[in-house]
C-alpha cells in the first residue's frame, strides 16, 4: 500500500514556541490530506482537511490561527502549532489517499507526539 | 454529524478464542469503513477496508462485515493470539474522505 510519513516522530518544546509537523506522501500524490489529533486513551478527532493550493478546511471548534496548515505541494502538508501550550500536547496523525474521488483507502502516517512543557 | 461507537471498550480473552468487535454508526450514507489496529504510542495499521457496496472482507484470521442499512460493522478475529493485543479502531468515511473514528476496543489476549 501507499506510504505516508511524518516528521518529526516526537517533539518536546517550551510553552510559547511554535512547532511544525510535516506529512509526506512518499510514493503517490495527494491533493487532499487530513490532520487528526488523539488525546491520551481517546480516539482520533479530525482537525482539518488540507487542500493542495488552497486554504485548509477546519472542523468546528478547531482554531485555524492556532493550527496553521499549508499544503504546498502534492506530496507535502505541514501543520504548525503556533504559540504552543501544555494543552496542545497530543498525538497528531495525518492521512492521505492515493486516488481521486471518494471511497479510496486512507493511509495514515505514523504520528507525531507533541509534548509542550 | 456522523457518530461512531465501538463496543466493548475493552476485552480480555485467553489465547485461542474467537472474538467479535462491534462498531456502529449513525449515518448510513457512507463511502466505506476501515478497521485499524493501534499499538500503544504508535500510529495506525490498516487491517481491512470495506466499500459501501460490500458485505464483508477477509484477510487471514480477520473478517469484517458491514450492514450499512443498520449502521453496523463487526470485526471477527479467529483463533486469537497474544500478538493481537492492541486497540482496534473502526473509522467511517462519510464525507469526502473524512474519517470519523470510534473510541476503540482495547483487546488483551492472554497467553
Give the overall shape of chain B, derived from the CA principal axes: globular
Helical content of chain A (DSSP H or I, runs of 4+): under 10%
Classify the secondary structure makeup of chain A into a structural class: mainly beta
Report the total helices of chain A.
0
Count of DSSP H/I helices of chain B: 0
Main sheet summary of chain B: 6 strands, mixed
**Unreliable segments of 5+ consecutive residues of chain B:** none
Helix and strand sequence of chain A: EEEEEEEEEEE
* Straight-line N-to-C gap of chain A: 37 Å
Could you tell me the radius of gyration of chain A in angstroms? 13 Å
Largest sheet of chain A: 7 strands, mixed
- Oligomer state of the chains in this structure: heterodimer
In total, the number of strands of chain A is 11
Mean pLDDT of chain B: 93
Radius of gyration of chain B, Cα only, in angstroms? 13 Å
Distance between the termini of chain B: 41 Å
The strand count of chain B comes to 11
SSE sequence of chain B, one letter per element: EEEEEEEEEEE
Highlighted features:
heterodimer, A: 117 residues, mainly beta, seven-stranded mixed sheet, four-stranded antiparallel sheet, B: mainly beta, 60% strand, globular
Describe this structure in words.
- The complex is a heterodimer of chains A (117) and B (111).
- Chain A has 117 residues and is mostly beta strands.
- Chain A is built from no helices and eleven strands.
- Chain A has strands at 4-7, 10-13, 19-25, 32-38, 44-51, 57-58, 67-73, 76-81, 90-97, 106-108, 112-116.
- In chain A, the strands form two sheets. In chain A, strands 2, 4, 5, 6, 9, 10 and 11 form a seven-stranded mixed sheet that branches. Chain A has a four-stranded antiparallel sheet with strand order 1-3-8-7, with no helix packed on it.
- Chain B is mostly beta strands.
- In chain B, 0% of the residues lie in helices and 60% in strands.
- Chain B contains no helices and eleven strands.
- In chain B, 39% of the residues are buried.
- The mean pLDDT of chain B is 93.
- Chain A binds chain B through residues 1, 32, 34, 36, 42-46, 49, 93, 95, 97, 102-111, 113, and chain B through 31-32, 34, 36, 41-44, 46, 49, 51-52, 89, 91, 93, 96-104.
Amino acid at each position: 500500500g501507499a506510504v505516508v510519513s511524518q516528521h518529526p516522530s516526537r517533539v518536546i518544546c517550551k510553552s510559547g514556541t511554535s512547532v511544525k509537523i510535516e506529512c509526506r506522501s512518499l510514493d503517490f500524490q495527494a491533493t487532499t490530506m487530513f490532520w487528526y489529533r488523539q488525546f491520551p486513551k481517546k480516539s482520533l478527532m479530525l482537525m482539518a482537511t488540507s487542500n493542495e493550493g488552497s486554504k485548509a478546511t477546519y472542523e468546528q471548534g478547531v482554531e485555524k490561527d492556532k493550527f496553521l496548515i499549508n499544503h504546498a505541494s502534492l506530496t507535502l502538508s505541514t501543520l504548525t502549532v503556533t504559540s504552543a501550550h501544555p494543552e496542545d500536547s497530543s498525538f497528531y496523525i495525518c492521512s492521505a489517499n492515493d486516488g481521486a474521488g471518494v471511497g479510496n483507502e486512507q493511509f495514515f502516517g505514523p504520528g507525531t507526539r507533541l509534548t509542550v512543557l | 454529524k456522523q457518530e461512531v461507537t465501538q463496543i466493548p471498550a475493552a476485552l480480555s480473552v485467553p489465547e485461542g478464542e474467537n472474538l467479535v468487535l462491534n462498531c456502529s454508526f449513525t449515518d448510513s450514507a457512507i463511502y466505506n469503513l476501515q478497521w485499524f489496529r493501534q499499538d500503544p504510542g504508535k500510529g495506525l495499521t490498516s487491517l481491512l477496508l470495506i466499500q459501501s457496496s460490500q458485505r464483508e472482507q477477509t484477510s487471514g484470521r480477520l473478517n469484517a462485515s458491514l450492514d450499512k442499512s443498520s449502521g453496523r460493522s463487526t470485526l471477527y478475529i479467529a483463533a486469537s493470539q497474544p500478538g493481537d493485543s492492541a486497540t482496534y479502531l473502526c473509522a467511517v468515511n462519510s464525507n469526502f474522505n473524512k474519517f470519523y473514528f470510534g473510541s476503540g476496543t482495547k483487546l488483551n489476549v492472554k497467553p
